[in-house]
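Hi everyone, sorry if this is the wrong subforum. Our group has a chain we'd like a structural model of before ordering constructs, and none of us has done structure prediction before. Sequence below.
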Amino acid sequence: MRVIRAGVMISIIGMLLTVASGPASAGPIIDPNTLTPPPPPGSSCRADGAWAVCHTVFVEDLVNEPIFDLPCGTVYQTSHDPRTGLRWYFDDLLVRRQVFSSVSGTWSLSPDGAGPTIAFVGYSNWIDIYTVPGDVESAIETLQGDQLTVFLPGRSLHIAGIDIDEEHRGVLRDLSDPEAATAVCGALAG
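Answer:
Right subforum, don't worry. Here is the predicted structure as tokens:
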């Protein structure tokens, strides 16, 4: 095992930061409202010839939001889901989008979050390719990652892998399985 002294490590980190913060090759800033469809508010967009690249940030926070129904009742979700993304436009029309999501939260059968809860996490990303530039309805989506892990006493439900144009490949143990729904109801009922 190699040991690197703290001073050497600080020097290496400093060099990496200097290289990473060197002159940017990005083009001029452009008005996101000139793009079709426009990216979310707060996006940062730069021109690169006929291309525009936008960096996006979106946070979805839910507090005791009704999400779905199970045989035992309505499930309410409290969660934090920060998302970062990139959008590529050609001649001002959206042609590709990639989003990274890292959600965590809890489910409850109570509209005010009282009573038993179960925790869940998800780490996924998706890419949309627009077969008709600028037309969001023409997207072909590829979703991948650890989409959802629900933590139950003594077990978990898990959805992971890749979904290409709505076809799943990988681990799929979700709430459409009656045994899984029963396990979630049992954990939420206390």
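For your construct planning: The first strand starts at residue 44 and ends at 48. Confidence is low (pLDDT under 50) at residues 1-24.
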